Amino acid sequence: MLSRYLPILDWxxxxxxxxxxxxxxxxVIVTIMLIPQSLAYxxxxxxxxxxxxxxxxxxxxxxAVFGTSRTLxxxxxxxxxxxxxxxxxxxxxxxxxxxLTAAITLAALSGVMLAVLGFLRLGFLANLLSHPVISGFITxxxxxxxTSQFKHILGIKGGGDNWPEMLGxxxxxxxxxxxxxxxxxxxxTAFLFWVxxxxxxxxxxxxxxxxxxxxxxxxxxxxxxxxxxxxxITLGLADKGVKxxxxxxxxxxxxxLPSLDPDLVAQLWxxxxxxSVIGFVESVSVAQTLAAKRRQRIAPDQELIGLGAAxxxxxFSGGYPVTGGFARSVVNFDAGAQTPAAGAYTAVGIxxxxxxxTPLLFNLPVATLAATIIVxxxxxxxxxxxxxxxxxxxxxxxxxxxxxGVTLIWGVETGVIAGVLVxxxxxxxxxxxxxxxxxxxxxxxxxxxxxxxxxVLTVPxxxxxxxxxxxxxxxxxxxxxxVLERVAERPQLRHVILMCSAVNAIDASALExxxxxxxxxxxxxxxxxxxxxxxxxxxxxxxxxLLTDLTGRVFLSQDKAFSELATDDGSEPPLQTADWARGxx
Amino acid sequence: MLSRYLPILDWxxxxxxxxxxxxxxxxVIVTIMLIPQSLAYxxxxxxxxxxxxxxxxxxxxxxAVFGTSRTLxxxxxxxxxxxxxxxxxxxxxxxxxxxLTAAITLAALSGVMLAVLGFLRLGFLANLLSHPVISGFITxxxxxxxTSQFKHILGIKGGGDNWPEMLGxxxxxxxxxxxxxxxxxxxxTAFLFWVxxxxxxxxxxxxxxxxxxxxxxxxxxxxxxxxxxxxxITLGLADKGVKxxxxxxxxxxxxxLPSLDPDLVAQLWxxxxxxSVIGFVESVSVAQTLAAKRRQRIAPDQELIGLGAAxxxxxFSGGYPVTGGFARSVVNFDAGAQTPAAGAYTAVGIxxxxxxxTPLLFNLPVATLAATIIVxxxxxxxxxxxxxxxxxxxxxxxxxxxxxGVTLIWGVETGVIAGVLVxxxxxxxxxxxxxxxxxxxxxxxxxxxxxxxxxVLTVPxxxxxxxxxxxxxxxxxxxxxxVLERVAERPQLRHVILMCSAVNAIDASALExxxxxxxxxxxxxxxxxxxxxxxxxxxxxxxxxLLTDLTGRVFLSQDKAFSELATDDGSEPPLQTADWARGxx
Lengths: 585, 585
What we know:
Shape of chain A: elongated
Oligomer: homodimer
Largest sheet of chain A: 6 strands, mixed
Helix content of chain A: 55-70%
């Protein structure tokens, strides 16, 4: 029981020297990758770069204690940083102490929400985000993030939460472009692109193993950071208007307190919830992918608690919302991490960096960090999904496109909400008008098929309808309309058979609709029969009035129902409420 | 085409003398019933009684032109009046001109919303209200309405939108009870109860036909109105503190204009939407029930337009939101109405009443109208539904109980919204963890059944899973977890078969999950197979990557799949990405 909520008790007991050395190796590599990323994502979130380091220390330790993935690497990630910027920017100006407080409060709210959802086992709510919506949201976020960094490459002012604002501000400021900044920014971007695309093949050609080459390529940003710092110092670029990171406080994360101001909480709870859900979905899919590769399992509800603990830890150490990141988790996995302890060792690495390396960052150009972000997020832009959706499902494509459009035009929060609503609306719309078919007998067999697709036998006084969907309140009204319309077209009708072979459930609303259909058909002298009702559905129907009131019978097979009713020559006494036969079950 | 939007062109063409006399007869009876009801419901809505008459004239004509039900009687109804009182009371004080403007604006907004929903064919959105939620809402509304009228029976001040407020106000004011008012109120209530329960059997015993006795009993309120007016005049009760209706303006409805004030519209649009949906659901279920009795059909999307027109007409003639009422429609039907023209004739009757009868209403005690309301709405309180839900479906019972509880404690608007959300949440929760079973072969047959319920054959290297639900984004994550957990428990596994006989659809998210399962199983050296995939589902899968990437095959029958794979002795070459076989289809 205790080890369900504290997975560390489980893997910690079997920790040995071999695991330790694997974990340490992975931690060193992830630390090198994480330092420039943490600084860059804090910049993206509109926060001082050091906040990115703070968010990469205690949260990793908290996740190591409470998380269930062996290889997930937690910390600041691009999309959540963008969402933080959008939410905090709505309540305070970037650079103000209130802005930092808002970011810390977002982490605290998000942490509490994640933990509560985990304890209540409500992880299934994340299902409301469909794949097409998530991928649309990530694509649009990637585009927004890249666009948001252009101002740093150009060395101008800018800002905005969405494309219209961002592009407007960029167009206005274009005249103020700083040529030195632009050269650094473009050079760093080009270099990082080359590292991503060209370095690995080159290293392999020089005899390096592919996996090693992959990991070496992840160190590209560190090289870009070091080279541009040197360039600034040697060429004296600080005097030429190149914006630098400047003084970064040296030392361990401070103890911080989130704000409990009810007004602030009221403004931030919706964005905090969205950040929680998006962060959870991103993190869980990474964790599941990696766990499956080693035939391990993660526990999604416990993951909520793990991420919740990480965010609460982030809030109390001056950080901002964190989650499991894709790129760094893959590096962690490939570098051989065996347990969450690797995350804790990474935390030590980052702590050492914030103790000793921060003075070196004074001369780091902001444009370098912007280049890091741009190159990292362009891989988020996914052009394959829309093509696949076009051929597979137009409805899903609509949800995907709507999410991209709304996110780009109105920003991330509206985008997520619109995506959930469009997905839900399409789902409900489909569930509210399910597939059904009028069926007839395939000659000389016991099979029944759609009369519109096959040559089948029917008789004018019997109508057989196959319902290809569970019956629920969403389609109960449709069912009434569908059956009564088909009946209204057929004046000779005396029997209606509902073939229930694909009906896995009938809820109370659908039951009432079946009763209404039964009574309405009865008023018109038509009997209602059921066939091929599944066991669990039948168990439930036996606890209702439907079977007692049914004007017709319940047949085990459609074949039997059709055979018996087709031979009814009308000599059967006409239907009277008084003598409705109890159905044969 | 034109007659789709103007059903009057259809039935109007075949109108003859016989239909005219049936319609006129029904109109006279409905008019007599509608006069006291209209006054009473206006009182319930917190409006001057004459507004109830106004809402029963032009709206009926508009519905006669645009509506599709032959027998629906439109006008003010109890639940919508309560919702109007709640919404208008939130923006203005009862009795103020702003309150009346708010009510008129609600009618206009609701009319426009209904018409737009009709033109966009969005009637299916009303499906979001399940039967248990509607019945819970109606029960709670009945209790709230009855409670709201106690103050008139006692002759004290009161008010409030929910039970805590109402009961608090009643308790405070109890000492001011006016004994004369109380006697009139209790006598009228007792009389109306007796009319409802005891009059019909008595009339039948005196030789009247049941249907005639039924209709005669509906005239009870008119008698109560007449008798109490006479009592007030003869006993001089006006001087003894009995609250009277007072001066009612004589004449036809005035031309009124709804307010276009954006602030007011912003405050009223949500309640207007809820009024529209509740009114539509109530009206459509009555209309469908009655239409089915004569094998007629109604067109729900055109009904939205008809009710929309009725509400717009109400707004422009000084009325408030209206919809089709249950009791009066049944009377209209039983009295022999053949076409919507009966509604137009009723409108003429009410117009004559507001021209000539209004002076007679000066001495009508408000307590009489309150008694009319109380007796009418207690039939809304439905005690059978919770019992039935208890035996049939606990989840539906939860939605029912939540709706009643929230409506009583927080009022009608919160109640409807909570009901929709609880219903949706339960539905999504169920859809997100569907039924699935591990199946094995029933010995010496081709049938496969749940291993937990039947003695069946399985082999350790083949796992057959039957999914009893459509695969969608709501359960895609569940599917991954379910399959991978079952696999993790079985180290000897080499083949997984997903039996898809109950899967009617696979959306893009579920497709991605199947691809993920395929890859993850492949990483562990296990092949994924599908069996019994339905035709339309297969058509769609063929447009995806899944079939090309599938490590296993697609089998027409589960029998064939199991037979072939069970005999695989492991001599088959181990799975390699390079030589994944294309599935046989």
